[in-house]
Amino acid sequence: MNLEMLVETTVGYRLVKADLSAKANELRNQISSLWTKMLKDQDELQDYLAMYKGFTNSTITQLEEKLKELKLERKEKMKELILASRVALDELWTRCCYTDEQRSQFKPYYVNHYTEDVLDLHELEVERLQFFFEEHKHIYQLATRHEELWERLLHLEEQAKRSDRLFKNRGGQLLLEEKERKLVQKKLPIIKKELISLLEQYKNTTGSDFLYFGQPLLEILEQKEEERKVSKENEKLQRKAA
């Protein structure tokens, strides 16, 4: 065999090897995707994939058979999988702070027939929301923290208005509450600033507002502060009128 033929043979072998490797990897990806969508045990998946790591013809045949088997099982469990997807959607809608109106926009959730198309739509929606939540998890975390601190601030301010609080100052309770109120007031602007930065990035990227319970989150933050401001002004007017 001359050098030219040797080179051609080597190149051809490498191309075949690359094709087989790509095919085996694609089959593994499809198997993993179906396995996860069907809520099967992940440890079993890893054990199975560990048995068929290479890309020989026999390995590819085994992977193809497993994929066929999973697709058949998926068809047989169509209703069960759709109902499971709806449970997953309920959880994701809650995590993403969806309103009933937002939930109702996904029409396949409410159909009473169980076909492959309906299952496909459910699985795509689950994947979309999972990705959305993970991508914007920090916004949700900050929004929750801001809400908790805001409610605590309002509570402490209400406590400070009570006429009997001086008689319940056990263990320096009033001083502790005042320290906590100042700490909360210090933390809230920091969280809000970070939130605004993330919300502006979101709007610049998507062209739309980040919705939180169906309302732009930035509007919610501003609305809370405006309501608190109005409430304090009304209290001042009431004290002057008294």
TrEMBL record:
Alphabetized Gene3D superfamilies for the sequence: 1.20.58.1520
This protein's record includes keyword Repeat: no
InterPro entries reported in the protein's UniProt record: MAP65_Ase1_PRC1 (IPR007145)
An example Gene Ontology biological process: mitotic spindle midzone assembly
GO cellular component: cytoplasm; mitotic spindle midzone
Keyword Membrane tagged: no
Keywords of this entry: Coiled coil
Residues in the signal sequence: none
Coiled coil: 53-80
A molecular function (GO) term: microtubule binding
Matches recorded under PANTHER family: FASCETTO-RELATED, PROTEIN REGULATOR OF CYTOKINESIS 1 PRC1-RELATED
Protein name: Uncharacterized protein
Record organism: Homalodisca liturata
